[in-house]
Amino acid sequence: MADKQCSVAGTPALYEGRHAVRTRADRIFRIAVAVPASIVFLMLILIVGRIIIKGIPALNLDFFIRAQKPFGEAGGGVAHAIIGTILLLVLAAAISIPLSLLASLYLHEHRDSQKARILSSAISTLQGIPSIVIGVVIYSWVVVPLRGFSAIAGSVSLSIVMIPVMTTIMKESLDMVPPSYMEGALALGVPRWRALTGVLIPAARSGLKESIGLGVARAAGETAPLLFTAFGSPYLTFSVTGPVSSLPLLIYEYIKSPYEDWHQKAWGAAFLLVLFIFSLNILTGMKRNNE
Fold it and tell me: Please, which pLDDT band fits residue 287 given cuts at 50, 70 and 90?
């Protein structure tokens, strides 16, 4: 009887000891998670802060409306790089969006087939290929046959960078649509292609838009593939059959030059590029939340 009373009396102390151990372990885990997260956030703040401090002083009217001045001459702007970036991204999106959508539809509709598994593995492999290798391949496929660098070659290389990102997210978005949507449409006698285009795709439009935004943001900062395809140009041009500049190419060329004025413009171009990517990600997230 006495032993039983001692056991009952010791139970609260035992519970308090275990609770203290769990509280201590929980506190250690929180710190272990918070420290790396804080370091990553601090690195982001430092990088963005540096770009803002160095980039904003370079912004003026000439920066946006004028092209590059001759080598060594101060002044001018990056209008040719802004136009070139827009041209490359529009062409790359026109190539990659239909291909990514068709590939994601195939993976969704034939998810258990051997061909779908092979296609999924190919997309994963393509996503891991360095972009500079893609640039070299497109150089041999497009630049050499066309006998010149061009916006077409640059957009093809960027589209290959975009396709794996967009296809993966599009496929996940399609998989999240409840199967009952398609089953209901097919039960009503709607042809399968009509059910896909009229029911499945509209139901997944939020994720599809997000995939396009992330794909464009992924390609917007690429430099390596453009070195072998678009090549860069100091002139303001809208031609898709000749060399064009882009903000990443301009940053690469200007920052390694001996001219201080070009260094300042490189920081300004970096600020524009970061602002564009951040705005695109924020806009994509806002649309997803609203829908």
Answer: low
The string over 122-131, giving b where at least 16 C-beta atoms fall within 10 Å of a residue's C-beta and e elsewhere, is: ebeeeeeeeb
In the chain, what are the domain boundaries? 2-58, 61-290
Residue 55: name the closest of 270, 273, 279, 274 by CA.
270
pLDDT in tens, 199-223: 999 999 999 999 999 999 999 999 9
Q: What residues are paired with 244 via a beta bridge? A: 231
- The sign one gets for the Cα dihedral 233, 236, 242, 245 is positive
Q: How far apart are CA 102 and CA 104, in angstroms?
A: 5
Could you report the per-residue pLDDT of 58-79, keeping only the tens digit for each? 999 999 999 998 887 888 999 9
pLDDT band at 20, cuts 50/70/90?
confident
Q: In three state form, how does the secondary structure of the chain look?
A: CHHHHHHHHHHHHHHHHHHHHHHHHHHHHHHHHHHHHHHHHHHHHHHHHHHHHHHHHHCCHHHHHCCECCCCCCCECCHHHHHHHHHHHHHHHHHHHHHHHHHHHHHHHCCCCHHHHHHHHHHHHHHHCCHHHHHHHHHHHHHHHHCCCCHHHHHHHHHHHHHHHHHHHHHHHHHCCCHHHHHHHHHCCCCHHHHHHHHHHHHCHHHHHHHHHHHHHHHHCCCHHHHCCCECCCCCCCCCCCCECCHHHHHHHHHCCCCHHHHHHHHHHHHHHHHHHHHHHHHHHHHHHHC
Question: Residue range 21-46: average pLDDT?
Answer: 90
CATH fold group of domain 61-290: MetI-like fold (1.10.3720)
What does pLDDT average to over the chain?
A: 91
